[in-house]
Target: Putative ABC transport system ATP-binding protein
Amino acid sequence: EPAVEAIDVVRSYDLGAGRVAALRGVSLRIMPGDHLSIVGPSGSGKSTLMHLLGGLDRPTGGELRIGGRDIRTLTAPELADLRNRTIGFVFQSFHLLPRTSAVENVALPLVYRGTGARQRRARAVETLTRVGLGHRLDHRPNQLSGGEQQRVAIARALVTDPAVLLADEPTGNLDSVTGESVLALLEELNTERGVAVVLVTHDRSLAARTRRQVIIRDGLIATDSPVPPRAVAA
Ligand code: ADP
Ligand code: ADP
Model:
């Protein structure tokens, strides 16, 4: 069964003067253990799609299923709960709490699910160690390099053991060497831990790193293929 499934999903925005359709009928299945990129130019609908796939937003048409549940049947708190149990998010600009240590940043998602303080810390330490930051537990974000901050953000996304990790331009604020190590970490989490990784990017060379590439253009999926887009006949 797909971890997340979009069936003919439409998302339009009300602009007062009219409506703009950011997504015009998108069908996509994210399978457990998938490794895919969603790639397309600016304005093509990538962020809108990522928000929908992660349950941060709801479609205006079509069906979206997360963990097999049609999200139309869920109240806002039920959707938030499903999201917190199923999806991890990584953003370009880390979104870490600035005055808070790495270990506390990573433990935060566990507060919302009522995990006790000692277990929260143990899980956060374990997850930071897994991403190579066992020696940075008590550093605050401004005491860490950009690559380290993104690793903290990845650890925070992983601490709840999500089936799917949605990463929106995760290397966008990093130099190429640091970006490379973050991509390698995401690949490792996919191959060794079986986390489905969805890399959202405008950069085709980054997209070429995932096993499957979904190309989005003007709110529609143009190509969804495990073969490199260049190899597909035009
Ligand atoms: P991408 O992430 O590929 O740059 P987006 O999903 O951000 O694309 O945007 C797709 C389209 O939807 C664009 O035309 C954008 O202007 C429009 N859009 C996105 N968010 C909103 C919003 N909150 N209100 C109105 N239009 C929006
Ligand atoms: P980079 O080499 O990526 O530019 P920095 O030179 O900023 O990173 O930092 C190198 C290391 O020193 C990092 O691992 C970071 O954790 C640590 N560090 C940087 N600034 C501070 C600070 N103010 N206090 C404690 N540790 C710091």
User: Anything to note?
Assistant: The pocket of adenosine-5'-diphosphate (ligand 2) is lined by residues 136, 139, 143-145, 147-148 (CB under 6 Å). Residues 169 and 224 are 19 Å apart (CA to CA). The chain has a mean pLDDT of 93.
